[in-house]
Amino acid sequence: MTLVNEVVDEVNEVMALVDETQLVAAEKIIDKNKRIFILGAGRSGLMAKGFAMRLMHIGYSVFVIGETITPSIQTGDVLVSVSGSGKTGSVLDPSKKAKENGVKLVAVTSNANSPLGRIGDATIVVPGATKSGDGVKSIQLLSTLFDQSVHITLDVLCLMLSRRDNISNETAKATHSNME
Amino acid sequence: MTLVNEVVDEVNEVMALVDETQLVAAEKIIDKNKRIFILGAGRSGLMAKGFAMRLMHIGYSVFVIGETITPSIQTGDVLVSVSGSGKTGSVLDPSKKAKENGVKLVAVTSNANSPLGRIGDATIVVPGATKSGDGVKSIQLLSTLFDQSVHITLDVLCLMLSRRDNISNETAKATHSNME
Amino acid sequence: MTLVNEVVDEVNEVMALVDETQLVAAEKIIDKNKRIFILGAGRSGLMAKGFAMRLMHIGYSVFVIGETITPSIQTGDVLVSVSGSGKTGSVLDPSKKAKENGVKLVAVTSNANSPLGRIGDATIVVPGATKSGDGVKSIQLLSTLFDQSVHITLDVLCLMLSRRDNISNETAKATHSNME
Amino acid sequence: MTLVNEVVDEVNEVMALVDETQLVAAEKIIDKNKRIFILGAGRSGLMAKGFAMRLMHIGYSVFVIGETITPSIQTGDVLVSVSGSGKTGSVLDPSKKAKENGVKLVAVTSNANSPLGRIGDATIVVPGATKSGDGVKSIQLLSTLFDQSVHITLDVLCLMLSRRDNISNETAKATHSNME
């Protein structure tokens, strides 16, 4: 078996464990009339940014925590936090603080029982191997398998949202950055 | 004379050459009902981001070209482009393209006769030394003096905008990121 | 069939078309004694950053074009450029310039015959749907399928490099940012 | 008096209070044979990045906490942390953690007695107004005056370092990103 096949098989194994009812629960919280904030660190953070960018393409008012023009988060806003281990301090601490301020939290993690997993108003479990040892075992380094699977999972969530909102590919294309 | 004094004197010399009527012209273009896009590279780009962040604090709908949630720029939008030399390709090319698409351009540069300076609907000249040799001479490296002076200049523009719009310090504070 | 399954099937279809001999050719260029520069825009750019971060974890001297501490690229350096369409100006133009300056180029694109694909010293073709219409057709928006597949492909390349270089998971873990 | 003059006067007032012996103390810690890590949030973070970029130009091995290719910080490394209030959690907490791990800390703050100010191996006090009310009073919004003054202060430190290390403007220019 080639290395590509081995890696793809791992992704398939994790994706088979993703529970679409959890995506539906998250979909209900991600309301187009609300502001959506996105938080993640490291490679999970890059996947979180990819999700944020696509939400923008399909017409959401979305902000990435830590980027230049991100305002204060307020009661009534939605926060989507991504952490494989569910214990990353720079993700967990602001998520707790947001919850206390009346923000709805979508938690995305490999471990439903992690501190982050437990406080989600909706929690999406993506059980790919992380660097803290959670989830499906992997031949890949650190939390690579989590990153790959969370990427696909959040893209499926975007696809659900775009269908719910009747956003076509052409509409998304018109919103895509034209300064590249 | 101490090194701090020498550097501060350079900044004072450049700032004395900044023409407030150019700031007033830019202020007229930066309309709160329009979307404002910000573009810069390198250290100028960091100053541009600082300007964008403050515009957000005082209630503008502002985006930084190259960040995650920046949508396509459209006819009727405003672009603020910062380049010391006025020749940086990654700033100049998108600025030209935006102009062709009916975007109003505020150009910020050390050189009014540079390619960027010439195409601004308003052009703010900040004649600090740049790495291409324009502007007031400096003991500092590369375009440090331009960066320092453009920083202060854009902050003065923000102050003008906040006064025009009746935004208090308390209002700005409430919008400041609360996830740090 | 569930939506997760439909999306995973698309990824599997693209990954089956990735040619491992192209990865081997890229692996030869990515020399641990050289500086590796990474370039991409939009969501492809996020995938490129994920690749850069993992290269750092396994001990490479790697820089992302556009980030703060990225130095000038010089003869003898390696550039890895990612563009689905192979035509993105902000990726293509610097890639051409780098080639002219004696930099080795690894091109990653959905289209081998695109301007970027044609100039790679090694070109990795990841034929997922892009927003310009190249590659395997997809139910997903814009270049989502390319992003997902390029993510996995670059992770496979990292795995190949880590094995070649005898880097263990524990070694990579010790290099992973500890300030999160 | 024009608005530009009012703002420039504020900057002059703060800069007159910057103590060059504190810069000398910081200069001793910033050793070219060590790895330098830079940390800041919000607009202070942008100024911190500007400092990091210039350190790269003059030949330092420097990393920005939170950027893609930043490795783990280790005993023997140097951390430069910037926070106007000296209380920003995302700056203070990692700074404390780094200190415990044997990292030398240069603290840059408006308030010597703040939590960050107190733990610096060298502390540079830049007493510009911050949004928490420290420092010289200002007509400008939030911590604008701190940002402006810290910008100039860190540039003076860079100038001291470049002179100590005999780095010319031409050498710095050759290291400046050539992909813009």
UniProtKB/TrEMBL annotation, chains A, B, C, D:
Keywords in alphabetical order, please. Isomerase
GO BP, one example? carbohydrate derivative metabolic process
Q: Which domain of life is it from?
A: Bacteria
Q: Which Pfam families match?
A: SIS
SIS domain location is: 25-167
Q: Which InterPro entries match?
A: PHI/rmpB (IPR017552), SIS_dom (IPR001347), SIS_dom_sf (IPR046348)
Report whether rRNA-binding shows up as a keyword of the record. Answer: no
- Reply yes or no: does the keyword Isomerase apply: yes
**What is a GO molecular function of this protein?**
carbohydrate derivative binding
The family this protein is said to belong to: Belongs to the SIS family. PHI subfamily.
* Name of this chain's protein: 6-phospho-3-hexuloisomerase
The top of its lineage is:
Bacteria, Bacillati, Bacillota, Bacilli, Lactobacillales
